[in-house]
Design brief:
about 80 residues; alpha+beta; two-stranded antiparallel sheet; 4 helices; about 10% strand; globular
């Protein structure tokens, strides 16, 4: 159980959320996403809807993709959110 707590805490902090204050609402959003499927874009929109006061923190989560064998940081188009 301690391992699950650590994983939840680190995952939430990666999205700029506070553990344990945001845990219940985060689980609600995240498990809806994993149960029903959906895009990463929709997950970000759902997180912003659930935590509008933390929008900037959520959108600043570091995302990376490989392009031509090199790791590059992806920037989310904030205007869409």
């Amino acid at each position: 159980m301690a391992g699950e707590k650590f994983i939840s805490q680190k995952f939430m902090e990666g999205f700029g959320l506070d553990y344990p204050e945001d845990l219940e609402k985060f689980h609600e959003v995240f498990f809806k996403f994993t149960d029903k499927g959906g895009s990463l874009d929709q997950l970000f929109k759902d997180l912003i809807e659930a935590f509008p006061e933390k929008k900037d923190r959520i959108l600043n989560v570091p995302l990376f993709t490989e392009i031509n064998g090199e790791m590059n940081r992806v920037t989310l188009p904030i205007e869409e959110y």
